[in-house]
Amino acid sequence: MNGYDELCLEYFLDNQSQLFDERVAENLDDAQEFLEDCMAVVCKNIKEVRAYFEEEGADVSYMDDDELEEASEVFSLPDGRFLVVEA
C-alpha cells in the first residue's frame, strides 16, 4: 500500500461521484488533501483490498472478489491498482 500519484488523484477526481452525491474535490490539490484527510489507501491488488478491510474490522468474508471490487468505497484504477476511500 502506497501514496497517491497523479493517476490516483485524477481518477478519484473524475470518479468521486461513485461514492459521494456532491463533489468533494475540484482539482488535484483538493483531491490529495481529501484523500489524506480520510486516510485513503492504495492497494496493488484485490488481495490487499481484502486484507485492508479485514484489518479495519470489516467482515468481507461473504464477498467474492468481484463484489469487493464493486463496493462504492473501492475505486478500480486503470493500471490495476485499487484506491480505497472510506468517508
Our count of domains comes out at 1
**What fraction strand?**
5-15%
User: What's the multimeric state?
Assistant: single chain
Figure out the total of helices. Answer: 4
| Sheet/helix structural class | alpha+beta
Shape: globular
What does the largest sheet look like? 3 strands, antiparallel
How many strand segments? 3
- Residue-averaged pLDDT: 95
Strand order of the largest sheet: 1-3-2
What is the chain-wise order of helices and strands?
Answer: HHEHHEE
Radius of gyration: 12 Å
Helix content: 40-55%
Could you name the ranges where pLDDT drops below 50 across 5 or more consecutive residues? none
Distance between the termini: 18 Å
Features:
3-stranded antiparallel β-sheet; 87 residues
Notes on the protein architecture:
This protein has one domain (6-84). The protein is 40% helix and 10% strand. It contains four helices and three strands; from the N terminus they run H-H-E-H-H-E-E. The protein has helices spanning 6-15, 28-37, 46-55, 65-69; strands spanning 41-43, 74-76, 82-84. The chain has a three-stranded antiparallel beta sheet, sandwiched between helices. A hairpin with a 5-residue loop joins strand 2 (74-76) and strand 3 (82-84). Helix 1 (6-15) crosses helix 2.
Short description:
This protein is of the alpha+beta class and 87 residues long. The chain has four helices and three strands. It has a three-stranded antiparallel sheet with strand order 1-3-2, with helices on both faces.
